[in-house]
Amino acid sequence: LALASHSRHPLSRALASALAAHGHRAVLLEQVAEQAGQGVTARWAGLTVALHRPEPRDGRTGGALVTALAIEGRPTRLIHFADRLRPDTTEALAQLSAMGIDGAILSGDNADAVAEAARETGLPARAEASPQDKRDAIDALRRDGAHVLMVGDGLNDGPALAAAHASMAPGSASDVGRQAADFVFLGDSLLAVPRAVAAARRTMRVVRQNFVLAIGYNVLAVPLAIFGYITPLLAAIAMSTSSLIVIANSLRLTRAAR
What we know:
Elements: H1 2-5, H2 10-21, E1 30-35, E2 39-44, E3 47-52, E4 65-71, E5 77-81, H3 89-98, E6 105-106, H4 111-121, E7 125-126, H5 131-143, E8 149-151, H6 158-163, E9 166-170, H7 175-180, E10 183-185, H8 192-226, H9 232-250
Parallel strand pairs: 6-7, 8-9, 9-10
Antiparallel strand pairs: 1-2, 2-3, 3-4, 4-5
């Protein structure tokens, strides 16, 4: 519980929540350190303790998500998890697909767990990717001319979130993930992702419309003013009207994400 409480990783948060719900109390740790994609280490009662990614020698078998608890001088204990998709995942992916956005899973979790998520979502997937692997995958997509939106919540997603053209993280993400993301959404529902994309596209349409309105005003008004067809009073009224039109057009965005 103490080790899990020092990490923002989804498995650690789930473990800490489950243990606390059963009335367990955390011990006092020293020299706590977390390494992205590897786990949390500390000192307890003079012993080195760790909550980390299982290694082949730990005897892990396929299936559910697994983390390993290691206490110096004692056999490693494996802790198994059952994973589930975030709420509205299927609908969110359907909306993104309708917008012409292709999705894929890029995960540091084990192959069995990622394969199950890929089966449920129908997305291509890559498992056991390190933070650098994720960053390299994003860079490769960018070199191919793709505009990449990365959505992640783990500590090891930070480099990939920073490398993408745009990035999103839930409010429950690690501090690194929230800092690296361009946009942080509250709640567990993934519908925030297509809503954000829709709002961004609508915003760009309004921006272009405002440019056209502003340029059109100047193309018409400046020649008339030069040749003296417009008095200063009419010019001031026309300028104010142009600004009000642009503002009114922009106010349409207040409901863009709904």
